[in-house]
Amino acid sequence: MRAEERILGGLEAGFKQFPWAAIVTVTGNNIDKMCAGTLISLRFVATAGHCTSYCKDQAHPECKRPVPADELTFKVQLGEYDYVNRRPNQETRTYHAVNLFLHPDYRSNIRLVETGFLESDPKYDIAILKLDRAVKPSSYITPICLPEVGQLLFPDLATVIGWGRIGRYVGDPHSSVLQAVTVPVLSAEECAEMDGSSYPSPDQICAGLSNSDQSSCPGDSGGGLMTRDMEERWFLIGIVSTGLSLDSQISYNREEPKLHEIKDQSRRKQDSPRIDRQGSIRPDGQRVERDSQLPEIMTQDGNIRVERGDTARLTCEVAGLGNYVLMWKEKQRVISAGNLMVRKDPRFQLSVKDGVFVLYIRNVQREDAGDYICEVDVLGRPLRGKQILEVLVPPVVQTRENKVDLYKGDNYTLSCSGQGYPNPRIIWSKQGGYMRRPGYEGLSLPLTNVNRQDSGNYICQASNGVSTPAQAVITVRVKYPPEVEMEQNWLKSESGTEIDIDCIVYSDPSPQVTWFRNSGKIFETDRLLMTEKPGRWTIKIIDIRESDFGNYSCRATNLLGKASAVSVISGRPSPPRFTSHSVNFQSSVYNLTWTCESVSKVTEYKLRYRQSKDSNSEGGVWSELVLPVSEPTLQYHYTLRELKPGSVYDVVGFSRNKYGWSMHSKTFTFFNKGVDFSTQELIKKKLRETEEEEERARQKEEILITSLSSDSVTWLIDLRIGVMSIILFIQ
């Protein structure tokens, strides 16, 4: 699989496509964060600096109390692809960091924006984790290449990977499957011209476009920005850092030459914080145990999906709450504190029992979607649990128009939009009739060079798995000049031969139809009847005579044009119409049957047959038979011999009477299957049934003979050869 079309607006990465991808989990001091990382050697993983640096004062522009490294645990997962549904035999390995090397110039700039929120804009946002043991390379786990020292790679496009959100908004879900997308790499000037952006600092790369649906998202921090060289080798050129807002570009800290600097520093620096094998950083080899009396949130973070209008149930279970207070929050708004409802919305209700806090939201609406936090503040250090509420909205479909009038040859695009959550899938269909692209998916359905077959009711159906699909109908009318087809049917009756000539007219608007014989207009007589049905005009000639022979034409006219077709009555017979079964179960012979209509006696038939063409052969040579006819019958037959089993044959026929030869028939095709196992079994079964029936008949006759013996008459009945022989013996 390719990654270039898959994070936000991207696709799932190919399995084992990026074996250097890492999941970095940071825990401790009420911190539980997941970032991405990149394996850059057999012992080092690169990630974002802000994934390893935290402040006890939360988000303040100036951090007075940074979280010490010895209070954090760094776990690195390699070989991961889908951390929810792992594949069979998938190789994943877990490592712990023993050293953390943050870029010497790293700083986390926290600033207040117009919306009143604090945003982070870190500088030199790169860190390296040293693993507790060397990595053993495999097809699942291997390092990425690094540029040479001083080498700057600035491609037009680069690929970014991660497990972050796959949407733009807070309520959008995270991906459990590694995502990848290709984004354009912008110059500083191009970046500054984009909405919501400014000149990147020298340590940053600007990639992506404003208001784009293809980018990295929250949760992708620390992931690699990569490019390939002419030899298709992947190189790491940046680390996912931050985007200033949801509608701005993402900043990627340049990889070169910082990683080389940090790696050199890691070899020299001896006083860096050390980490034990369990991953808890310690400066002096001692571990600090958690106070067993403190509260602990027992409920796992998760996603809750509720259909709009239903009731959502959000649960938070706390052990050892004691005198501490649990709060429910949403978008920084307090919903409840302890047993008290703070938010004055009658749809919100709280149930508390035995440390289980259940928040009910009745009549859930789309705007209720988002992250709901249950929080316990413990001496200024909050413990948090998170439930992500997704509100499922049934699909609604809208069309630009309900009726469209077109002319033959026009080009037009039908449009349809669907709304709902998740985003609905749009599928087009048509009520009966022909559709060029059945099952076509998309917001629009192109109709090019339309003709009469494109007329009809087109259905735009939106479905997202919530409730029932929504539909809208667009009626398309294609106006076109008449199109005429002719059919001729013969019928034998006591009064002679009758002929029906049908004129089938396709036309919009409706046509005017006129009949002609040779060059003159014809009208009804006692032997020529005219009838009309929707789309079909018919003349019936009763007791056909030689004087009726000629060219019969049907002329149709409407506002857009006219058309005509001719049916010839010449006295010549119709072509043979084959009536045999299309599958033959005999090994080498086939009984071919046919019928023919003719105003006079048919004198002979001509048959041509050959082995049919297929993908492996050009077909056989035509064999021709001439069959004289002595007496007319309702049905004719001929046995074809020396056929090959398992072959397909084509047959074409001609008829002849005193007026001449007919046109050739339609090609008739039959399959000479031969006697297969199932047919043999049927024959054997039929023979067994016949023998059993004969045996029962013989037993009945023996009883009859016995009953007649007193009258000195004996009947002997021999049924073995299917002939009843009755011999009378007189004693």
Write the layout of secondary structure elements.
Blueprint: E1 11-12, E2 21-28, E3 31-39, E4 44-47, E5 73-78, E6 93-102, E7 110-112, E8 118-120, E9 127-131, E10 157-162, E11 179-186, H1 188-193, E12 204-207, E13 224-228, E14 234-243, E15 250-254, H2 258-268, E16 274-275, E17 281-282, E18 296-297, E19 302-307, E20 312-319, E21 326-330, E22 333-337, E23 340-341, E24 348-353, E25 356-361, E26 370-378, E27 381-399, E28 403-407, E29 412-421, E30 425-430, E31 444-447, E32 456-463, E33 470-493, E34 496-508, E35 512-517, E36 520-521, E37 528-533, E38 536-541, E39 550-558, E40 561-569, E41 577-578, E42 583-584, E43 590-595, E44 604-611, E45 623-628, E46 636-640, E47 647-657, E48 660-661, E49 668-672, H3 677-708, E50 713-716, E51 727-730
Parallel strand pairs: 19-27, 28-33, 42-49
Antiparallel strand pairs: 1-11, 2-3, 2-5, 3-4, 4-9, 5-6, 6-9, 7-8, 10-11, 10-13, 11-12, 12-15, 13-14, 14-15, 16-17, 18-20, 20-25, 21-22, 21-26, 22-23, 24-25, 26-27, 27-29, 29-31, 30-32, 32-33, 33-34, 34-38, 35-36, 35-39, 37-38, 39-40, 41-43, 43-46, 44-45, 44-47, 47-48, 47-49, 50-51
Q: What does this protein look like?
A:
The N terminus and C terminus are likely disordered. The chain is mostly beta strands. Strands 19, 21, 22, 23, 26, 27, 29 and 31 form an eight-stranded mixed beta sheet that branches. Strands 28, 30, 32, 33, 34, 37 and 38 form a seven-stranded mixed beta sheet that branches. A six-stranded antiparallel beta barrel has the order 10-11-12-15-14-13. The protein is elongated. The protein folds into five domains: 265 residues, Trypsin-like serine proteases (Thrombin, subunit H), CATH 2.40.10.10; 98 residues, Sandwich (Immunoglobulin-like); 157 residues, Immunoglobulins (Immunoglobulin-like, Sandwich), CATH 2.60.40.10; 99 residues, Sandwich (Immunoglobulin-like), CATH 2.60.40.10; 40 residues, no CATH class.
